[in-house]
Amino acid sequence: GQTDNIPRLFWTAMLMMLGLGLLLGLGIALATPALAGHLLKIPAHLQPEALRSFYIVAASMPVVITTTGLIGMLEAHQYFRAINFVRIPTGSFTFWGPLCVLPFSNSLSYVVAILLVGRLVETTVFLLLCLYKIPELRCRPQLRRELVRPLAGFGGWLTVSNLAMPLMAHMDRFFVGAVLSVAAVTYYVTPAEIVIKLLILPRAWVSVLFPAFSAGAEHAPEESARLFSRGLRYLPPLLFAATLTLVTLAPEGLQLWLNAEFAARSATVMRWLAAGVFLAGLAYVPFAFLQGAGRPDMPARLHLAELLLYVILAPTCIRYLGINGAGMAWFARAGLDLLIMLWLTRRRMPATAPAIRQLLGMALYSLAVLAGVAVTTSLTLRCVLAAGGGLLGVALYWRVILDHSERSHCSREISAIIARFQQKAPRDI
To answer: Of 59, 154, 168, 416, which one is least surrounded by beta carbons within 10 A?
Structure first.
């Protein structure tokens, strides 16, 4: 049956991903001398350390890619709690791991090496979880030749997207370094690293939706369309709240955390990136839907076209507009990605058209509020505009987007929360 095929599919896919990781790592290692030598304009005295760091990154590629397959297997079996139990500590290790190195060395290569160790531990734990949670995987790993071609066809397109998406999300900093200077990278990377963390929410969101999309695409297309509608309606308010906070407090937050000069240089680009991440996060739902519907080639071809366009657009914008141009290019690419991804979804399943129209309306309203807040110089007025725009957005969302059953459910949940709070509140004697 289908269950008997799971071990063969899993181990064939894992061995293929391991091979792909080795090839990618070899490619990075071969390109390292050129990257560290002159392409990234790294000062001569830092080039030996940069070389070592790039070689460690190349060695990590097989680990990074195979981890994706292990997580995918656990997600397919709905073991999200187990995944989070591993991801939370390993995710925090990316912050406190390098801090443990600093008392002994300030070498970048040691920091990258400790992060690789953390990745190895994470991959090992995920592999043990797969073997523990899914007993049928406890067999000898074997590459089934008859499965290579269908897996390469489907998985190849998945790999294209899984490589192109993070590449487009992070290659902007390399463009900044190549076109401007390494010093300019500092003013760009800091806000970029803060803002990009917002994508954790849509990634977690679609990790739950994707198995359901896959199961319903063939057997229950109507239910799959309804699930798509709900996923598309519930995500924007959460992303908008986080994005609005960043856009409103960007200058003051950067000044409080770093200094006034840094805030003056980085606040604008932080706002452009925040708006871009808002749009990119919304695109995750149609992206997961198309992959779950058995058409990973559609988003993959789009991502390849975007990558070629972005390689031309980003350096041009950076050359004329500085780091703000990098943020604008990121925003433009994310907006184009969302629009085309929604068009592809509607073409694949016309029943999703009403949900897509609702999303576009919410996105346009959100961008208008973000733009109004961003051009306001006074912090007080910015907070007033953000609060007013947020409250109006909630009212519109309640009356226009949610249907009667959803409003009734929300009302019951809010009443239950208020009742619990009143029960726990201290009473006057």
So the answer is: 416
For residue 294, what is the DSSP state? T
Q: How far apart are CA 226 and CA 274, in angstroms?
A: 29
Residues 242 and 194: their CA atoms lie apart, in Å, by 12
Q: What pLDDT score does 1 carry?
A: 44
Distance CA(429)–CA(273), nearest Å, equals 53
| Cα–Cα distance measured from residue 337 to residue 306, given in angstroms and rounded to the nearest whole number | 8
Nearest residue to 81 via CA among 168, 201, 208, 167: 208
Nearest Cα to Cα of residue 141 among 47, 16, 242, 51:
16
The rounded distance, in Å, linking the Cα atoms of 104 and 18 is 33
From CA 405, how far away is CA 427, in angstroms rounded? 35
45, burial (CB in 10 Å: exposed 0-12, middle 13-18, buried 19+): exposed
Q: How far apart are CA 429 and CA 425, in angstroms?
A: 13
Q: Is the pLDDT of residue 322 over 80?
A: yes
Q: How many residues does the chain have?
A: 429
- Record the tokens describing residue 99, joined without a space: 């801090």
| Cα of 341 vs its chain's centroid, Å | 16
CA distances from 127 to 57, 64, 116, 130, 152 (A): 21, 13, 16, 5, 22
User: What is the tens place of the pLDDT at every residue in 208-241?
Assistant: 777 777 765 555 667 777 888 888 888 889 899 9
- Of the chain, the end-to-end C-alpha distance in Å amounts to 67
Could you give the angle at which helices 221-257 and 284-292 cross, rounded to 10 degrees? 150
Q: Is 202 exposed, middle or buried (0-12, 13-18, 19+ CB in 10 A)?
A: buried
The 3-state DSSP class for residue 107 equals coil
Report how far residue 268's alpha carbon sits from residue 277's, in angstroms, rounded to the nearest whole number.
14
**C-alpha distances in Å from residue 139, one per residue of 134, 182, 265, 420:** 11, 50, 56, 50
The tens digit of pLDDT for each residue in 52-70 reads 888 888 888 888 888 878 8
